[in-house]
Amino acid sequence: MSWRMNRRDWLRTVAATGALSGLAGQAAPAPSADRPGESSGFTSSIITRDKVQDTRYAPSIVDGKVIQPQRELPVLHTTEVLVVGGGPAGVAAAIAARRAGADVTLVERYGHFGGLWTGGLVLLVIGHIVKGGKQVCQGIGEEMMQRLEKLDGGIINRRPGANPTVDAEALKYVMVEMIEEAGLKVFLHCWGVDAVLNGNEVRGAVLESKSGRQAILAKTVVDATGDGDLFAAAGAAFEHRSHNVGLVSRVGNVDKIDASKAGKARPRCLGAPTPAPGVNWVNLIGPEVDGLDVATLTRMEMNHRKFIWRDLQKTRQIPGYEKLFLVETAPQLGVRITRVLHGVQTVTLADLKAGTRFPDVVAVGGSSDGSHGEWQVPYGALVPKKVDYVLAAGRCISAEMRMADLVR
Length: 408
Prior knowledge:
alpha+beta; FAD/NAD(P)-binding domain; six-stranded antiparallel sheet; 9 helices; 25% strand
């Protein structure tokens, strides 16, 4: 006997029996944008009916070339200080500027703050201690550490002379709290794609988002993109470098390993502990490539994720390691260095060895193992030589090759 059911009958059946609940999971009430948790359920409305996008300024093909017509960009916002990039350097720069009394706007391309620290799952905090275990890095970074200490599962190995490890979700939460407390204007899901110029002066940035192409005008722009996207677009000189591009993952059930069953067999690497019990973070270093080449980045994303999955499956075949599982691969690829500013001053290894002290010091650093002393970042390492009103922050500041890993 043949049996047939149309789509409507099928939906009625599963609705009556709850058969879809195992697929859909238990859906929480949809919160409002400003008052989380107070909505009664899923809602949807029509914002615009029969809308047609204006294509007068769309790129077109002219004589075999793609041409972008000249057009006026809408100004999304005007501010005193615009920080483009919401990683550790950008967040710290924005909060510091706001606490100093400036009107500050922070723009970030992802939906969270922290950059590679959170999105890249680079959870280890290094470069803050010197010989004897003294901690030299303080300020906003130390404030973040203290806040993480107050959260259950926020940080481990938080002791003198040690390199602590943070929890990415706890850190995202802490950063949101600090940003809101500081009173920053924030735009997430915005990619800084160009500089707004008035001669050799940077007067804002062009953003690309789901809202289209818009501009934010500012008196000063801080390029905290990690790749120097804004100062490069403004015409500042820089050095283009290659480095290893990797991907971090997290592995669960590490506490359930029975190594006594393994014999001589041992896995390649199981990383280091995190604040989450039984979960390790594993750093895949990757090959040296150009982190500005989109085809290369695409290949790295795909190859690294395949390797991590397959490598863990091999590890699970080792007796005693069967219960391991892949918690996640980082959503953000581990690009370490690309563009480095040619600044008015440069952070050098010679200055580190000499213990040079600068009258305009803006930051200090240490080492990961306390093997050397404190080194300083002068203000001039943030300043381009021939472009005004833009500063670099983070791994793209002016630093010689031998200092790149310490700076980042």
